[in-house]
Amino acid sequence: VPKFEYASDPQGWLFQLASNIVTPIVLILLGMILPAIARREKKDTILPIDSAE
């Protein structure tokens, strides 16, 4: 819940409320998506075999 009164700035209050709801959702989704992307990158990476031996 925003820290200032709705009557003083209704548009700012609604924006802050929406930001307080959307920000944690976005961060949680990033926390779930980025490790999956890293796993896929690691799995798809083919390490070169050193044939000089």
In words, what does this structure look like?
- The protein is mainly alpha-helical and 53 residues long.
- It has a domain at 7-33.
- Helix content is 66%, strand content 0%.
- The chain is rod-shaped.
- Keywords: Membrane, Transmembrane, Transmembrane helix.
- It comes from Enterococcus faecalis.
- This is Amino acid permease.
- The chain crosses the membrane at residues 13-37.
Topology record:
Blueprint: H1 10-44
Protein name: Amino acid permease
Transmembrane segments: 13-37
Keywords: Membrane, Transmembrane, Transmembrane helix
Summarize the structure.
The chain crosses the membrane at residues 13-37. By secondary structure, this protein is an all-alpha fold.
Principal-axes geometry comes out as rod-shaped
Main sheet attributes: strand count, strand direction, barrel closure: none
Quick check: average pLDDT? 87
Structural class: mainly alpha
What is the overall number of helices? 1
Work out the strand percent: under 5%
Unreliable stretches: none
